[in-house]
Amino acid sequence: MAELPYFDLLIHERQDGGAAGALWENQVHWGYWENPRTAEGTQVDYVAAMEQMNRELLKAAKVGDGQKLLDAGCGFGGTIQQINAEHSGMDLTGLNIDARQLAAAEAQTEGANGNTIGWVEADACRLPFEDNTFDRVLAVECIFHFPSREKFLSEAARVLKPGGYLAVSDFVPTMSFFGKTPFWMVIRTRIAKSYGTLGNLPLRSYRSMGRRAGLQLEENRNIRKNTMPTYPFLLKFFREELPPDSRKTMVVGTRWMKWLSKLGFAQYRVYTFRKPD
After folding, report:
1. Residue of 80, 213, 260, 269 with fewest CB within 10 Å of its CB?
2. What's the short name of a Pfam family annotated to this entry (predicted)?
3. Can you give the residue range of the structural domain that contains 12?
4. Closest CA to 9 of 266, 223, 254
5. For the chain, what percent of residues have pLDDT higher than 90?
6. How far, in Å, CA of 96 to CA of 21, rounded?
């Protein structure tokens, strides 16, 4: 299983009633601001931005009532919870390789609006579902933890019904050769100390990986600028709310990610794929 220091921290904080556990009780991802200049830098504003990020992914996947949906890498179930609150007649499945995250998700989620919810412990690159099972598949800011982006796309294509959609959000280097440089290997190690196991950067483009999996890339959005207020908020929160050891761990990796994004070396992209009829 991937090592995820930030989730280890959050689970510990949840058990001890810490500030980080409360802030990331449901969602655990970057925020989205339609106008980044309006970001307030408050916890309420950041939580709202995380929920808006979910909506951007749901819009990308064309999520609607009455669908059968898989959220791969579901974390504490925040995306499932939001779908549960905003849609009806859904058959929702959250999948994660970490039983601790699933236990938290299940404990704080109850079906509403005629929706059913299930939780599955499994590897996202080896999905335990029959072919043509789901109308929609999501991977919200988690695919970089998977052993292989390409294997996940292939598995997602397999379990999608014809005409179904997959939406993925990912941190992607601006230049493909960047992932082969010694500079990246140093940065990667620093980021991993905060955010854990990182899969290899894709050697092929997402369009090419999707094509090999039998998927058509319909949309490719770079929303880097919309996510930038995440960094000052996180750095301030970590410095003010975390104990010294945890603070150092989280600040180092977050600072590197901030500068990669600010300088344009890393993009935050949302991809929409469709499985042909």
Report:
1. 269
2. Methyltransf_11
3. 5-274
4. 254
5. 81
6. 19
